[in-house]
Fold this sequence. Notes:
The complex is a heterodimer of chains A (about 180) and B (about 625).
Chain A lengths: L12 H15 L6 H12 L4 H11 L3 H10 L11 E6 L2 H5 L2 H12 L12 E6 L11 E3 L2 E3 L7 H19 L1
Parallel strand pairs in A: 1-2
Antiparallel strand pairs in A: 1-3, 3-4
Helix pairs in contact in A: 1-2, 1-3
Chain B lengths: L6 H12 L2 H4 L1 E6 L2 H5 L2 H14 L6 E6 L11 E3 L4 E3 L7 H10 L9 E3 L2 E3 L6 H4 L17 H6 L4 H9 L2 H11 L11 H10 L6 E6 L8 H8 L1 H15 L3 E6 L4 H16 L15 E6 L9 H8 L23 E5 H13 L1 H4 L10 E8 L5 E6 L4 H8 L9 E6 L5 E4 L9 H6 L8 E6 L4 H15 L5 H18 L6 H16 L3 H5 L2 H9 L1 H10 L13 E3 L8 H5 L5 E2 L7 E2 L9 H5 L5 E3 L1
Parallel strand pairs in B: 1-2, 7-8, 7-10, 8-9, 11-15
Antiparallel strand pairs in B: 1-3, 3-4, 5-6, 11-12, 13-14, 13-15, 16-19, 17-18
Helix pairs in contact in B: 8-12, 8-15, 9-10, 9-12, 11-12, 11-13, 12-15, 19-20, 19-23, 20-21, 21-23
Amino acid sequence: MAKVEKCSCGNDEEGLLERLEEIIISFKEKPGALIPVLQATQSLFGYIPQEAILKISEILNEPLSKVYGVITFYSFFSLKPRGKYLIRVCLGTACYVQGANEILTALKQQLSIEIGETSPDKLFTLDVGRCFGACGLAPIIMVNDDVHQWVKPSDVKKIIGTYKKQKEVKQEEEK
Amino acid sequence: MHFVKNSAELQALQNALLISKEYNSEKIFICAGGGCIASGSMKVKDAFVTQLKNAGLNETLDIMETGCLGPCAIGPVVVIGKDDTFYQKVRAQDVKEIVEQHLIGGTMVEKLLHPVEEQKVSKKSELPFFKNQDKQVLRNCGKINPTKIADYIACGGYQALSKVLNSMSGEQVIQEVTVSGLRGRGGAGFPTGTKWNFARKNQDSVKYILCNADEGDPGAFMDRSILEGDPHSIIEGMAIGAYAIGSPQGYVYVRAEYPLAVERLQIAIDQARTFGLIGENILGSGFNFDLEIRKGSGAFVCGEETALITSIEGNRGEPRPRPPFPAEKGLWNKPTVLNNVETFSNIPLLINKGGAKFAETGTEKSKGTKIFALAGTVKISGLVEVAVGTPLRKLVYDIGGGISTNKKYKAAQIGGPSGGCIPVEHLDVPLDYEALNKLGAIMGSGGLIVMDESSCMVDVARFFLEFVQDESCGKCVPCREGTARMKQIVDRICEGKGEMKDIDELEKLAGTVTNASLCGLGQTAPNPVLSTLRHFKEEYIEHIRDKKCRTAVCKELIVFKILEVCNGCQACKKVCPVEAIHGEKKMLHTIDEEVCIRCGLCISTCKFDAIVKY
C-alpha cells in the first residue's frame, strides 16, 4: 500500500485526513457505512491511502481485513494514487463490436502504459470500463467525466494532446 | 416550496400548474440526456439562451432541458414545441439560423431535419423512429424537466400515490399489480404482484423496499435514461410499493458509472421530501416512507439481488444462496422487495390506468411495454419503447432505420452476458420472455446490440466469457473456474489451436456452470456461448478446421497485406509499434508477418486504403 504522498495539486494531505475523520464520524451511525465512507475517501484523495484505512477501521470499528477486502472487491477503489486524468476505455458490447480494442491498443502505445498503470508524469492513468451507458455513441472513452464519442484509433493522439495542453495552460497561468 | 398536506391540495396544485404561464408557454425542448450532453447539447442550450435574448424572444419562448428523447446517435436533438419540428445534430453555431430563419422567419432549417429515404421529415411525431414506438414508461422523458417536480406534478405525477393512499388497501394495490400481469423488467421476468405479496404477508415490523439501479449489462442504458429523465416516476413507484408491503424505508442502489443519474435522483428525492410526497405522514394518510441513495462501486455482480443487498450492508458484494429469498430474509435479514428501475416506473402508470387496462398491451403472458437500448450497427441507435411482443425486425428496421454500414444484418445480441444472439432467420421473433427463451436468448434488462457481418460470433462469445470471468465474484467454484476454463477453450479456438472435441467440451462445461453456480451471473454465463454455438456453429468449425475467421476479427487467424497502391508515404511504418513494416520512401512497403502483432494501427493510419486484412 502506498503511503500518503505529497500530491501535485498542492493540497495538504494532513488536512485531508482531518476532514476524512469528520466524514467518518458523520457516517458512523448509519447502517452499512463502510462503502459510503470509502467512496468519500476515494474522491477526497483520489485513492485510498494506508493512513485512511487505519482511521476508517478504527472509527467504524471494522477489522482491517474487512476494510481491505471491501476495497479490493470493487473496481472504483484504488490503493495507488491515480494520474490527474483517468482515461477509461469502454469495453461494453456496443463499443467492443465497433472497435474499442483498437482504441485501447492505440492508447497503450501512445502512453506507453498498460491497463491500471499511470504515466511517469502522473498525468494519465489508463483503465477499462464495462459500459458507461452511452452505447448510442459507441465507441466511447471517458477522460475523468468527459465523454469522447465515436473515437477512432487515429483520434487518440489528439485527445491526449488536448489534456496535456490543458495542464500546460494551467501551469502557465499559475506562473 | 410547497408542502402538500393532502390529496385535495395535490389536485389543486396540479390544476394551478396546468393553467400557469410557465406550463402553457411556447417551448423549445433540448435533450439533456446523457448521450446528447456528451454530444454538446448544453452548448446548444447556452446558444439558445443568448440568441433568444438577442432576438427579444426570451420572454415569450421557454427553453426546456428534457430527459432522453431517444435517438442518441443523431444528437444533440432539439424539438421546436409550436410546430413539433425535430432538428438533429444541432451545433451551437446552428442556433442563430434556427432562431432567425425558423422562429422569426417561419421557415424550417432544412439541413438540420432528419432524412427518411431521401425525404426530409420535419415533425417529430411523423418520424419513423418515434411513430413506431409506444412510449408509456417513457411518457415524460422528453416532455418535462427532470429537475423540476412541478413539471412532473403538472403531468399527473404523484396522483397514483394519492389514489393509493386515499382509497386503496395494501392488498388492493397488490391485487391491481397482479391483475396487470406486470413482470420484473430487470431480466428474470418474475411477476411483480407475487413478489410483493410474499413480502406483505410477512409479519415482521421492519421491511425494506429496494430499487436496483445497478444497470451493469453492457449495452443497456434504459434505467439510466429513466433515472436521468423522469426520476420522480421511480420515487412514486417505490412509495406505492412501500405502502403495499408496509415498508417505511427504501434504498436506490445506483451504479457509480452514472454520476448524472445520481445527481438528478438526489434532486428529485429532496424535492419530493420538501413537498411532503415522501417522509412522514404522506398526504395526511399517516403513512411514512423515506428514501436514500446508495452508490455502487463498480462491481457487475451487485446487480444480482442478494449481492446488491450484501453490498448495501457494507460488505464485499457476494451473493448468498436462495432460499431464503429476500422477501423473507433480505436487507439486514428483514423482508425485502427488490425491483428494477423500469418496473417501479411502470407502477404509477398501472395504478392510474387500472391493472386490467394496463394488461391490454402486450402478449398473453407478458403485459405492458418494454424499453430497449438499441445500439450497434443500426442507423439510429438510442432508447426505444415498444409493446412487449413487438417483432425484432420492427425495432431494427422501422425504428432503428436498418443497418448503418453497407453490410448485412448478422445478429442481434439481446440480454447482455446472460443473453444470446438472434440470427437473421429469426428476425421476426416477437420480443417477449417466452419466445426469446426458446431461441436461447433472454429478454434481459433490454440491451439490444445489432451486429452486421463484420462481427465474428466466436469472438462475441469470447467477449462475454471474458466479461463474466472478470466480473465473477469468485465465491462459488463453478462460476469462477468453469467460466475460466470455457474462456480458455474459446481463446484456443480463436487462436486457431482448437480441436473438434472442444465444441463438445464447451457444451458439457456450460451445463455444469449453469446447473451448479450460486447466482444468476454464473447460471446464465454460458448463454452467449450456447446461443452462438446453436445459431453459428459453422463459424466455430471454420475456426477449428480451416483455421479461418471469415470476418477477419480473430487476430491470430488474419493476415495483413500492403497492396500495390501503396505510395510509400511511410506513415504506417512510423506508427507500427513492432517495426514490422519495411520499405524505402516512395517505394511499395511490406509487412513482416512473423513480427506483426496484428494491432491494426497501420490500417487506421493509411490514408490511401492500401492495407487490407483477411
